[in-house]
From TrEMBL:
Protein name, entry field: Winged helix-turn-helix domain-containing protein
Domain OmpR/PhoB-type: 1-93
InterPro entries in alphabetical order: OmpR/PhoB-type_DNA-bd, P-loop_NTPase, Sig_transdc_resp-reg_C-effctor, WH-like_DNA-bd_sf
Entry keyword set: DNA-binding
SMART domains: Trans_reg_C
DNA-binding as UniProt keyword: yes
Signal sequence bounds: none
DNA-binding region(s), residue ranges: 1-93
Length: 473
């Protein structure tokens, strides 16, 4: 085993540097062999004790004595042995731990596709075309619009003929930069010691071949993902990224591809025209998956069209609504939508929480906002249609918000896919999806109720929604 300039022969129990023998005591050699066999991982003092002195009761200081003897014997290479505070010892990764390279055979299998993407043929083709010319492509859009499904569909279509190794990385349960790096390493089949979590190490492991890394659900760690992507591109230019997020990474070389909801029918459409609508087709398809004998009656087709309109053509919302049709009936689903979105839950058991409940998906988006952006969004429920910047200023002029602050907040809401902006006319026009408007109206009502309860007892209640006074009646 080679460790920098050091050669460790386990069988002959010999240590050589630059061809010259280094004399070591038997316990010191066993310590070094144990550290070398750990492949860069930290070895605790208790593990060293049980390995080097098995079945023997010795003083703990024996480890310190032999580590000191090892460092003295290694001379200029003494820094190979690293003390990790309160954990143990390891060998320095820069010299002794070579990254275990991932290959197409070692990557984790792609997640299983759940059915076909209805109404997305054109979008898939267009996204594949843009991806071919992009080093970093970020699919953005409102929660539940189908970014993950689109990315997975691209992965399946590209993988068979792609010269790069395709790896799909789910970031849903990776809240820190270290866990994002570990998730990427896991998805690529790379063994990265837990104490050597770095972009440099991961980049070295990925530099042996071209890669297409699909990072799914990056919005809750957007800054960390942006840093990691830039760092990996620096050390491994052969990597290509496809990222799904509710907001862009905002880094160099990024191309942003907005994923729009499915087209919904007009209320004036005939039944056959409604059935040709991608949103209605998705509803019917999912309802039939839940209840194979489901065939919508003429009156139900019109109701399904209204449901799809009410849900803005958002695939997750439509699938959840269709899943409730067996229990509540189509008309029952339509009626309940006027009361809110909380009943839209019950997705696939294997899906993440953000894909099992529309309210949970929107809560994630809301929680990722700054306090001031949350307050502004709650105010925007008052707009039933498009509004311009002057109208926006009129609504918040009693919130003591500066023009600069208002611009920053509306920019945050647009970037995070919670407010739409259209710049086709003489001035930008903003709007909310109807489901977002319903969601923030419920937030407003909740804040109002809690504020009223607090005033009734003349003291604030724990857990009050933190909104400016102008957000309240």
């Amino acid at each position: 085993m080679k460790i920098g300039r050091i050669e460790l022969d386990m069988n002959a129990r010999r240590l050589r540097r630059d061809g010259q023998d280094i004399r070591l005591g038997s316990r010191a050699f066993d310590l070094l062999a144990t550290l070398a066999s750990a492949n860069g991982r930290v070895v605790s003092r208790s593990d060293l004790m049980s390995t080097v002195w098995p079945g023997t009761v010795v003083e703990d200081c024996n480890i310190d004595v032999n580590i000191s003897a090892l460092r003295k014997a290694l001379g200029d290479d003494r820094d190979l042995i690293v003390t990790v505070a309160r954990r143990g010892y390891r060998l320095a990764p820069s010299q002794d731990v070579q990254p275990k390279l991932g290959t197409a055979a070692s990557t984790r299998p792609l997640p299983r596709r759940v059915g076909n993407l209805i109404g997305r043929e054109v979008v898939v083709a267009k996204a594949a075309e843009v991806l071919a010319d992009s080093q970093v492509l970020t699919l953005t859009g409102i929660a539940g619009v189908g970014k993950s499904s689109l990315a997975l569909e691209l992965a399946y279509r590209i993988a068979p003929s792609c010269p790069a190794t395709v790896a799909f990385v789910d970031l849903a349960s990776a809240p820190t930069i270290d866990e994002v790096l570990s998730a990427i390493a896991y998805g690529c089949g790379i063994e990265m010691p837990e104490d050597i979590v770095s972009s440099e190490y991961l980049g070295a492991a990925l530099s042996n071949a071209p890669w297409l890394l699909i990072l799914d659900g990056a919005e809750h760690v957007i800054s960390a993902v942006a840093q990691i992507v830039e760092a990996l591109l620096t050390v491994s230019p052969g990597i290509q990224f496809l990222v799904t997020s509710r907001e862009p990474l905002k880094i160099r070389n990024e191309t942003v591809f907005r994923v729009d909801p499915l087209a919904v029918p007009k209320l004036t459409d005939r039944c056959d025209e409604m059935l040709n609508s991608p949103a209605v087709q998705l509803f019917v398809h999912h309802a039939q998956q839940m209840h194979p004998r489901f065939v919508p009656r003429i009156a139900e087709i019109a109701s399904i069209g209204k449901i799809c309109q009410r849900l803005d053509g958002i695939p997750l919302a439509i699938e959840l609504a269709a899943g409730r049709a067996e229990l509540l009936g189509v008309e029952g689903v339509q009626r309940l939508l006027s009361d809110g979105l909380s009943f839209l839950s019950g997705g696939y058991r294997t899906a993440t929480s953000r894909h099992r409940c529309l309210q949970a998906a929107l809560d994630v988006s809301f929680d990722l906002l700054s306090d001031s952006a949350q307050s502004l969004l709650v105010q925007l429920y008052r707009f039933a249609g498009p509004f311009n910047f002057d109208s926006l200023r009129g609504v918040v002029n009693d919130m003591a918000v500066t023009t600069r602050g208002l611009i920053e907040n509306i920019d945050e809401l647009v970037s995070k896919s919670l407010v739409n902006v259209c710049i086709d006319g003489p001035e930008p026009m903003y709007s909310l999806f109807e489901c977002i408007r319903t969601f923030v109206a419920e937030k407003f009502q909740c804040a109002s109720d809690e504020h009223a309860a607090g005033r009734a007892v003349q003291k604030p209640l724990a857990g009050d929604v933190a909104l400016p006074a102008s957000c309240l009646p």
